[in-house]
Design a protein that fits this description.
It is built from 12 helices and 10 strands. It is an alpha/beta fold.
């Protein structure tokens, strides 16, 4: 197949995949993928079918060499994600998700591309766990965070019980988890799990600003950095420093065209032209 025909075919397949989405929306702005959780009638709470759909959405993002950063947000102006759809579950709806976990994200440990949460409202339970699974959290001032599962006889087992203590410290996390209390965007910033608080309605715009700053850097360097951080946190500092050059994304960075282009562009006093390979 001719190269131009192949490109058209791939574009058509992307459009077909986009048309199949029922519980989310996907938009691409250059190398940035925007994923919108879209069940506004239930505050973007997720059920089994939504989880499997989002698994495919993030599989596609991870595999797409042209996409460097993803943003996750919620439809409407009230909620990012209210977590598990309890009414669906209470009505006998089957509960479960694919290997990527809640929203295809909370158990996804093999994606080295940055993912940003643009929290535009309520982020409860699984919704907060989605945000915690992202690399950055940008929150509108009306955003609210909580792990309220104990109030309905459940526990935050989609990563919340493990990510929150690692991100803000044990005592602060215990204070949120054991009381199931709600935390404002402002307090989330003070606790350290929110990167920036912006006016209501501006979470996505701010997240795009962060994403664009990230895309000014070599995607190979960004992926190497994220992978080194994630793998390094699981071992001692000494071991992390000793082993980091053997991490796959670090080795890929060193072998890439970008590794040559960066210093060359600097010496020639011009902006680098990243190719991501």
């Amino acid at each position: 197949m001719h190269a131009s025909m192949t490109a058209i075919f791939l574009q058509e397949k992307k459009r077909e995949r986009a048309m199949e989405l029922k519980f989310s929306k996907v938009e691409r702005k250059g190398p940035i993928t925007i994923v919108t959780l879209s069940r506004p009638e239930v505050y973007n709470a997720l059920h089994t079918d939504a989880h499997f759909e989002l698994q495919k959405v993030f599989d596609d993002f991870s595999a797409d060499a042209e996409q460097w950063v993803a943003i996750v947000t919620g439809a409407g102006d009230k909620a990012f994600c209210a977590g598990n759809d309890l009414k669906w579950q209470a009505a006998g709806g089957k509960r479960g998700w694919d290997k990527g976990g809640f929203a295809g994200l909370t158990s996804r440990f093999d994606c080295d591309k940055p993912i940003i949460a643009a929290v535009n409202g309520v982020a409860m339970g699984g919704g907060f766990e989605i945000a915690l699974a992202c690399d950055l959290i940008i929150a509108a001032e009306n955003a609210t965070f909580a792990l309220p599962e104990p109030r309905v006889g459940l526990a935050a087992l989609a990563g919340g019980l493990h990510r929150l203590p690692r991100q803000i410290g044990l005592k602060r996390a215990m204070g949120m988890i054991l009381t199931a209390r709600h935390v404002s965007a402002k307090e989330g910033h003070e606790l350290g799990f929110v990167n920036e608080v912006v006016p209501q309605g501006e979470a996505l715009t701010a997240a795009l600003r962060w994403a664009e700053m990230i895309t000014k850097n070599s995607p190979m360097s960004i992926r190497a950095s994220k992978q080194a951080i994630q793998k390094g946190l699981g071992v001692s500092l000494e071991q992390a420093i000793e082993e980091q050059r053997e991490y796959p994304a670090v080795k890929a960075m060193v072998a890439s065209q970008d590794y040559i282009e960066g210093p060359k562009a600097f010496s020639e006093k011009r902006p680098p032209k990243w190719v991501g390979k």
